[in-house]
Amino acid sequence: MSESPRGPGAAPQTPDIPVEIVDNLGRGRYELWRVDSDGGRTFIGFVGYRLQETGVVELQHTVISERFSRQGFARLLVTNLLDRLRERGERIVPTCTYVQSYLERFPHYQDLVAEGE
Question: Are 95 and 58 within 8 A, CB to CB?
């Protein structure tokens, strides 16, 4: 997989497979599932979160199943999650080290960081 160009506005490269992100409220995590051709789903990983206040989500940790590690799925999950949160007008508190490094590589998502963070 090639690296995306760095700089403002550069879109991160992600695996091109059908996926679904599910907000699992009961477990406090956004889950990434691969959608299989037979209609089934395969769990890939998740970003744990905690709602700090209305419109502010603390992203605590990113976990990808070993079977899918080092294939760009963490990036796929975080990219789609940040896009979804942006569409909803929400802000983030990035305590997850992966999300922190992602924001450094793709600064056009920095506007999502809640003030004071």
Answer: yes
